[in-house]
Design brief:
Helix content: 10-25%
Distance between the termini: 42 Å
Strand content: over 45%
Shape: globular
Order of helices and strands: HEHEEEEEEEE
């Protein structure tokens, strides 16, 4: 009986040691929205937050830093709930999941992206809400630790009232490009 318990404790200790040995990865992210009227390519964008914020029509939507074990997915988002009469609540916005794997100072990553925008209602009597949903799954790559990875997630469209001093308000279709910037470190 003691031999069985000793073996069980040894197996448990091995599992705990293996679990504790998983490296910690620090994932730094920036989710950036750029008014597409800028017509900047991804290579023309400033590679720092101060440079980004100085550009007209650039919004940094979220700037989280999370810790993850190697191989573990972490999610970050900028979303909000909207209430649609007689239909309930719906979540709109952007969600990104990042799964890094570390090998020394080299990182492999997989990124999933989901964007949901409320477009309006169907013109038929049902008045069904219409959502524009875009998903990109399993974007993979690798990089050295401390180096930023820039991923262009495409454009989002929204009608928006534009206010200009001395002019009547106008409703315009606004195009915004989404870019996520990710940097990995293995220092906890």
């Amino acid at each position: 009986m003691n031999h069985i318990l000793t073996s069980a404790f040894a197996a448990l200790a091995f599992c705990v040691t293996a679990f504790a040995a998983e490296p910690t990865v620090v994932v730094h992210t920036k989710l950036i929205e750029i008014n597409s009227a800028n017509r900047l390519t991804i290579t023309e964008l400033p590679k720092d937050a101060a440079g980004l914020l100085s550009k007209k029509g650039v919004n940094v939507l979220t700037f989280p830093e999370v810790k993850s074990r190697s191989g573990e997915s972490k999610e970050f988002s900028t979303t909000r709930d909207i209430e649609v009469a007689d239909r309930g609540k719906f979540q709109i916005g952007v969600t990104i999941s990042v799964r890094p794997t570390v090998d020394g100072n080299r990182f492999r990553y997989s990124v999933d992206f989901n964007s949901t925008d409320f477009e309006g209602f169907a013109s038929d009597p049902s008045k069904t809400p219409i959502f524009n949903i875009r998903k990109i799954t399993d974007m993979k790559g690798e990089c050295d630790g401390g180096k930023e990875v820039w991923l262009d997630l495409g454009e989002r469209f929204a009608e928006q009232v534009v206010e200009e001093t001395g002019k009547p308000d106008t409703e315009q279709l606004i195009r915004r490009r989404l870019i996520v910037v990710i940097r990995f470190d293995n220092k906890a």
